[in-house]
């Protein structure tokens, strides 16, 4: 059974995950209309992933005898200065979500809500992976720079990252 405080906190996280999905969807659209199909595919995939995260929280609240609420979320931006700004903002957003998950972990621990603490462990690991991934992309974007051909190389590199087989990140090979 979730406490009222935990239900409220988890519903706030539903809103954050929903916003993240919309933010990445908006970024995907910006990338697509600016001819960056590899970057668009990356962002579309992450928009879907964030919606899945939202649904995990939503269903967990209801499963634990709480009441998940469909949130109203602010409209995300639809324009960015350049692709560097897109990925810098995305990376900062992932860091924000990591912090919010940490706050939920702290609350569940304080309330001795061990079921929720266990549920949140998946998100702790997921956020660590997401931060590493977005940092990797941002580092490549910065390394490539903003010369005349940079958009082509950025798009190509992001597409390569997006096409990696899950579990083989960071060059790890399957046994």
Q: What are the salient characteristics of this protein?
A:
mainly alpha, Ferritin, 5 helices, elongated, disordered C terminus
Can you offer a commentary on this structure?
With 175 residues, the chain is an all-alpha fold. It has a single domain (4-164), classed as Ferritin, core subunit, four-helix bundle (Ferritin, Up-down Bundle). 74% of the residues lie in helices and 0% in strands. The protein contains five helices and no strands. The protein has helices spanning 4-33, 37-63, 83-110, 114-144, 150-163.
Q: Layout of SSEs?
A:
Elements: H1 4-33, H2 37-63, H3 83-110, H4 114-144, H5 150-163
Helix pairs in contact: 1-2, 1-3, 2-5, 3-4, 4-5
The radius of gyration is 18 Å
**Count of DSSP-assigned helices:** 5
User: What is the name of the CATH superfamily?
Assistant: Ferritin, core subunit, four-helix bundle
* Helix content, binned percent: over 70%
The CATH C-level name is: Mainly Alpha
Q: Percent of residues in beta strands? A: under 5%
Report the biggest beta sheet as strand number plus sense, adding barrel if it closes: none
Using the alpha-carbon principal axes, give the shape: elongated
How many distinct beta strands? 0
So, CATH architecture?
Up-down Bundle
Mean pLDDT: 92
What sequence of helices (H) and strands (E) makes up the elements? HHHHH
